Each structure stands twice: as C-alpha cells, then as structure tokens.
Amino acid sequence: MNEEIKTYNNSQPAEIKNIYDLLAQTIDLELTEAESKIWHAHPVWFIEGNPIVGYSKQKAGVRLMFWSGADFEENNLNIKGGKFKDASIFYNDVAEIQLNELIRWLKKSREIQWDYKNIVKRKGQLEKLK
Question: Which has the closest alpha carbon to 48: 97, 119, 110?
C-alpha cells in the first residue's frame, strides 16, 4: 500500500480505518498497474493519469467512488453524479463490503473509462477512452 495512503488510513477512527484498509488492499491487488496517491485530500487510484477510483468519509458513510461508474450498469452503484459519469456506494461497516462485487467493479473500472485527465483542457467535456 502507498505509504501516504497508509498514513491517511491510520489517522482514521478504527471503524473507518478497517473499511479504508480493505478497500485500499483490494484496489491495490486488482489494479496493479494503477498509481495511487492522496489527491484533493483523499486516496485516489489513477491509470495513465486518469482518476479511476477513490474513497472518502462523508455524512452517509465511506463513499467509494468510481469516476466512470455510471456506465458500469451496476445496481448497487446507485449514487450517480449529475454532470459527470461517476457512481458511488456508501459503507458504514467493513462487513457491508462484498468483495466479489468490488472486484467486478474494479475490473470494469479498467475497461470503461472516461477521460477526466483532460477535462479542463476540453472545457468540462468528457470523452470516452474505453
């Protein structure tokens, strides 16, 4: 696990840390080609500079967000962004994480990507990469 992300996870309360650790470990195992770092104050994984997946603590719980998740056609990724192609799920306990589902989403995150890396250059317009 990226040291910066490990430090970030370790600074959280135990119930949040357990969720964060399982998410980070699973993402690292499945997206071996991805670069991870703290980006805009939260852990995010990138493929070729394009943000793919990340998590953060919000009022509703730990939000796991896939930048291109709206196109995954997954019922449990039901919190969709408005303007962009993101989709999320919230967790409040590590037992809520279904690893088979998470692994499936991570595989889709590699196969289905919108170009967020160049969104500023394109003045807010997204283009599909894969």
Answer: 110
Amino acid at 69: G
What does the alpha-carbon distance between residue 128 and residue 56 come to, in Å, rounded to a whole number? 25
- Bridge partners, residue 91, by sequence: 62
Domains of the chain: 3-111 (3.90.1150.200)
CA-based max dimension of the chain: 41
Segment 98-118, tens digit of pLDDT: 999 999 999 999 998 766 666
Global confidence as pTM: 0.88
Instruction: Please say whether the beta carbons of 22 and 94 come within 8 A.
Output: yes
User: Which residue carries 């699973």 as its tokens?
Assistant: 26
Cβ atoms of 83 and 54 closer than 8 Å: no
